[in-house]
Amino acid sequence: MCLSFIKHQLLVCEADIFPLYNVRKARKQIILHLNVLKISIMAQKILILINDAPYGTEKAYNALRLAMQLGKDHADMEVRVFLMADAANCALAGQNTPDGYYNIERMLKAVISKKGKVKICGGCAEARGLKGARLIEGTEISNMAELTNWVADSDKVITF
After folding, report:
1. Which of 45, 46, 53, 147 sits CB 3.0–4.6 Å from 78 for a disulfide?
2. Which residues constitute the domain of residue 154?
3. Any idea what DSSP says for residue 101?
4. Whether residues 58 and 129 fall in one domain
């Protein structure tokens, strides 16, 4: 139901429900309830931090499985993936894996195709010789300041 419609209905009924001396208090309560309702309707922001290499352990694989499922089942959620440490290698373009084996590049592209955001720690990428390397389209080199903003702005932070 439209939030403005609910607000209008509550304000119209305000005088009937509450005695005149309580109108100000009632108005504050209504505004408080509307703000809570507005927050619950807004999209959640989920940040997934990945630290491990793309292959060798299944942490990156499982993190991206979660990111893909969130994007699929909850289109209203903002899914963010931040690649740190050895996970910076996840963003390399042109990954070639054997048939039947998962491919991190394809998984990242699936996250991005569902409007997910993927950023790579710049210092981590530079330390691993990835500066100037061909990265997956839609990923971008970032920094700790941007990660800090994402952490502060996210509703949930999940670490792999």
Report:
1. 45
2. 45-159
3. S
4. yes
Amino acid 112: pLDDT: 98
pTM to 2 decimal places: 0.75
Which among 144, 141, 139, 91 is positioned nearest to 118, based on CA atoms? 139
Q: 86 and 30, same structural domain?
A: no
Long-range contacts of 137-143 (CB under 8 A, 24+ apart): 137/93, 137/109, 137/112, 138/108, 138/109, 138/112, 139/83, 139/91, 139/108, 139/112, 142/82
Q: How far is CA 111 from CA 20, 35, 72, 83, in A?
A: 54, 31, 9, 13
DSSP class of 112: H
List residues bridging with 122 in a β-sheet.
none
Cα distance between residue 138 and residue 65, in whole Å: 18
Instruction: Give per-residue pLDDT as tens, 90-119.
Output: 999 999 999 999 999 999 999 999 999 999
